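Consider the tokenized backbone below.
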């Protein structure tokens, strides 16, 4: 019986060690040098290890000129029913037009010709916060499959019209000319 007990103790210790090694091999650290990213905006670290930001920048889109884009270069839109006051695109609307969300502790950051003074955030009725620009909640569009496109410009969908913003904060209501969408 003593020999069987010893075998059980050895097997148990080996199994415990295997679990610890497997957990160490699979686990990641949230303090690594690569910041998290999401489908709605690229994250970038700042000078402090714990802080991260959601980038709002600018790019030139054919037929529209300079417009706001997220950290991955995807065009950002405003939803006319938001009336520069609050997020109204939720549910199936947000599935087609994902809001540019902020995770807990994140801040919006301007680059390019985007103006930091126009950045802010608004409460999302579905939870969390959405980046705003000059009061307008910002959204991406699933129909924009690559950077530099604005297939959602001047589209009437989900109860209202969708437009891009100029770096000044002006809503560009014209339809694009040329091949942007």
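A designed sequence for it:
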């Amino acid at each position: 019986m003593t020999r069987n007990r010893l075998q059980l103790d050895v097997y148990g210790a080996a199994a415990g060690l295997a679990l610890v090694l497997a957990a160490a091999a699979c686990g990641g650290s949230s303090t690594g040098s690569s910041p998290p990213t999401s489908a709605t905006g690229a994250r970038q670290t700042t000078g402090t290890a714990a802080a991260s930001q959601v980038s709002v920048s600018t790019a030139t889109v054919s037929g529209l000129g300079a417009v706001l884009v997220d950290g991955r270069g995807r065009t950002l839109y405003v939803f006319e029913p938001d009336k520069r006051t609050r997020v109204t695109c939720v549910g199936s609307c947000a599935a087609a037009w994902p809001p540019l969300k902020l995770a807990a502790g994140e801040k919006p950051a301007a680059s390019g010709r985007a103006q930091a003074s126009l950045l802010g955030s608004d409460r999302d009725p579905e939870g969390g916060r959405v980046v705003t620009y000059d009061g307008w909640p910002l959204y991406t569009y699933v129909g924009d499959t690559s950077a530099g496109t604005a297939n959602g410009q001047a589209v009437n969908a989900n109860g209202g019209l969708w437009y891009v913003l100029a770096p000044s904060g002006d809503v560009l209501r014209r339809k694009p000319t040329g091949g942007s969408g």
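The chain has a mean pLDDT of 79.
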